[in-house]
Hints:
This protein is an alpha/beta fold. It is built from 7 helices and 7 strands; from the N terminus they run βββαβαααβαβαβα. It has a 7-stranded mixed β-sheet.
Amino acid sequence: MCYESDAVPPVHGAAVTPVPEAGPLVLTAGDGTRFAAFTGFAAFTARPERPSGAAVVVLPDNNGLSPFYEALTVRLAEQGHPALALDWFGRTAGPDLRDRGPEFTEPGNLLAHLMKLTPAGLDADITAATAELRADGGASGRPVIALGFCFGGRQALRAAAERFALAGVIGFYGYPDAINGSPGPTQLADEFTAPLLALWGGADEAVPAAAVTGFERALEFCR
């Protein structure tokens, strides 16, 4: 499931804190690749008498960093969670989203970019986004979790591995099995150390029940 760019994330409730800073930025991964991100930083001074909650790295669906995920970071920040949503396509399309044009998300063009992504590059981008949150995103000393959807849900589950040092991961609709020979969360389950929450729709034809069962068995085997 991928969200349309004009979709709107739900409003959990009244904001518990203002969001004085929200906007785009460009990050640089450890391999020197520059990629776009969108931040929503919570104003922690709104409720100084108690912690504001975990910071969240938002991992978008196959379409990359769309307005839906920009709005989602602000929604999270309104509830006291520093949030940063990253884009997947800095290596293939450059870091400036404005240069891509509306044709970028056409199925054929988007698939061509998705096929060029590598596990090493994805790991580097997630690591850079996490480091940015911890350093300058208001998350110093706070736990950081990953929240992903569809393609990002798959990457969120992969980020349960110890090398990411996350406090937890949440993956919506992420395909858990291998794709074109590339290991998925099922094959990588023995590397996972972070608490993990995975959610799928029972009638989701893109993620068959057998794939979910295989992932559950892999997790059980690794306990």
